[in-house]
Structure formats: C-alpha cells, structure tokens
Amino acid sequence: MADTVVYVYAVTEAAIAETLDAAAIVGIGGAPVRRVVSGGLAAVVSPVDATRFSEEALRRSLEDLQWLEDIARAHHAVVAAVARSGPVAPVRLATVYLDEANVRALLDDRAAGFAAALDRIRGRTEWGVKAFAARAEGGAEPPAADAARPGTSYLMRRRAERDRAARGHQDAVDAAEAVHREISTVAVASRRYPPQDPRLSGHREEMVLNAAYLVDQVGADALRRLVEDDRAAQSLRMELTGPWAPYSFATLDEP
Amino acid sequence: MTSGGLPVPGRARPPDHRRESANLADILERVLDKGIVIAGDIKVNLLDIELLTIKIRLLVASVDKAKEMGIDWWEHDPSLSSGKGGLAEENRRLRERIEALEAARPAELEGDGAAAPQRSAERPLRRAARPRAERRSGDDG
C-alpha cells in the first residue's frame, strides 16, 4: 500500500468503539475504519492516501465539488454508523494525522474535553428545523383605482401591498419565534443559524427560522409533534431534518 | 423520513412537508462548519482560506450547478450571506487595500531615496538604525 496518513472521523468512548464492527464500516476510498484507543476514548479513523491528503492536494481537491461530495458523504456515513452505537463527537471534515500515535496523543491531550462533550450528547440526537414564511394569501383588498387620480391610487395600492407583505413577514417571524421557543422547552440545547437567502436556497419563501436542537428520545417525539402542529401552518411551512449525529453540539468547549 | 442517517423509531409515514433524504447541502453544512475542530498534522484551514474559496466559487461561478445539487450552505455564513452586505463589503475593503498597497509599492521599491517620504515616517525604528548616508535629505535637518 502506498504511504498513508490517518483520517479522523469521530471520537467516541472506548467501550462503544469496542462494540463497533469496524471492518463493516467503510470510510473514504472504501477502506474499513479502525479504532485508535487511548484511556477511555477511541478515535474512529481510516488510512487515506498521503499524496491525496497532503496540504497541497487538499487545497486543490476541496474546490472540486465532486471530490468534496464524496468525502463529505463518506465522512457522514462513518459518523452516522458510530452514532448508532453510542455517543459520538464528530470531528470536522479533513482532520488528518500523520500516524496513529499522534491520534492517541490527541485523545490524551484533550481527554477531559472529549469526555465532557460525549457526556453532553449521550442519548441525544440533533434535529434541524427550518421554517419558511408561507405565501401571503387573501387579506384586505387593495384600494380600487381612481381614474381621476391615477398617480395617487397607484401609490396607495403600492403602499397597501407593501403593508400587507410586511404584516405577512412579521406574522411569519413572530410565528417562527414562537415555534422556536416551544421547541426549546423540549430541547436540551439549541443553536440558531442565519436564515438562508431565498434567491439561492431555491425556496421561493423566505426562511424565517434555521435552527438545530439537541433532544433526548422523549424530546424528539415532542419536537416532531411541535413541528407537525397545524397551528403554525397558516403562516409557516416547516421543514424537519434528522436525527443527526450531534454535529452542532459536540463541541470541545461548553456551548 | 430519516435524513441524518440515524434510525428513526416509530412513525411510518412522514408528513408531506418533510424532505425525504439527507441532501448534500445539509451534510456539507454539518461536516464542514460544525463538529469538533482540532488541528490535525495536515494543516487545512477550512474556514480561513479553502472553505471561503469554495463558497465564493459556488456563489460566483456556479450558483446554478450548486442549486441543482441542492447546495445552499454558504448562506449560513454571515460573512457571505447576501442582504447583509458581508461579501460585498469585504470585497470593497480588499479592493481598497490592494489599491493602497499597489500605490505604496513603487515608492517602497525605489529604495531609500527621496521618493519614499512615508517610509521614514512609518518605520522609525528601521530608520534610526540606518546609516546616515541612506537617510532622506532634510530628514533630520
């Protein structure tokens, strides 16, 4: 085999890693994953080609969408496989070490931080919730055109349309805030992200909520009920993704 | 209905308003911008340079292709979100910076002669260490 370096997907507990059928979990380039254990922690890794994962090669490859997609999906698949067995702290894409000894050193150096992160997400999953402002329907009729004063009635119509749009937007924002507050009551933690721009997201509606929630099993059921709740349906279109491994919450520092 | 790749207990039929599978945008959003951030032996600064390059490339050069693939995650980055002027503002500042640097460069390159009045002002320490013959005439009377 050509020279390889060590790609790190995730950190979990040694006991959890022990239960993994590592040979059955396929990482980047089809290589089965390996466990690197130190103390009570284990990193899930796989060997990758040293040439393709050099600093220089990565700088180029990361701009190759197809390559990036392949790596991202492989990374995500390994993280998800580990997450089925127990608490997992996903490591960011393209974290590469020269050898397994350096990975063990990492586990030792950051042992307390990893342990705290794993404790925080134990038995919990991440869900993504997005809310889009539903298209405004109906509402007050705009003032009828006045043939004698076309300029004035044009301006009045424009103002009425603008006011109605603003009310619709504000209603949606308020509804999204209410949904977020409600979901937060059943979640252990939440993270808000900036809404995506409708021109680029492909959704015509404006995104008014983009959030991730960390929930336990009971919370997950409650969260799903809240997202499906029809009360918000008049002003919002909800989108739920998950369950995810706790990407947004397994951080080394206290969130 | 699973989209995060984990098994979902119960509930067979997903409601209509949900997406059915993990799209690439959602995955990239997570694997690139979230998770444990540690410096590996191979230095790849995703956030500072390369990721920004990808984002800009997607944003500027191939928005249509990216949209086809369902990629819209650059909008999560406040510095790139449109409507907030982040990228435009940064571009403007960078352009100004480049212009300023280019304007300053010829004077620098002309060395220690009379054409570099700002140099002695900007680098008093170096100037003090320079031999007297190199100093700008009239600099110190």
TrEMBL record, chain A:
Q: Which UniProt keywords apply?
A: Gas vesicle
Q: PANTHER family in the record, alphabetically?
A: PROTEIN GVPL 2
Compartments where located: Gas vesicle
| Record's keyword annotation contains Membrane | no
Q: What protein am I looking at?
A: GvpL/GvpF family gas vesicle protein
Q: Which domain of life is it from?
A: Bacteria
Family to which the UniProt record says this protein belongs:
Belongs to the gas vesicle GvpF/GvpL family.
UniProt entry tagged with the keyword Calcium: no
Question: What InterPro entries does the record tag this protein with?
Answer: GvpL/GvpF (IPR009430)
In its UniProt entry, the species of origin is given as: Pseudonocardia aurantiaca
Matching entries from Pfam families are given as: GvpL_GvpF
Automatic annotation (TrEMBL), chain B:
Keyword Signal assigned to the entry: answer is no
Q: Where is the composition biased (Basic and acidic residues)?
A: 120-141
The main location class comes to: other
PROSITE patterns tied to this protein: GAS_VESICLE_A_1
Q: What UniProt keywords apply to this chain's record, in alphabetical order?
A: Gas vesicle
Q: Where is this region: Disordered?
A: 105-141
- Compartment list: Gas vesicle
Q: Name one Pfam family in it.
A: Gas_vesicle
- Write down the InterPro entries for this protein, in alphabetical order: Gas-vesicle_GvpA-like, GvpA, GvpA-like_CS
Q: Which family is annotated?
A: Belongs to the gas vesicle GvpA family.
Q: What is this protein called?
A: Gas vesicle protein
Organism, by scientific name, is Pseudonocardia aurantiaca
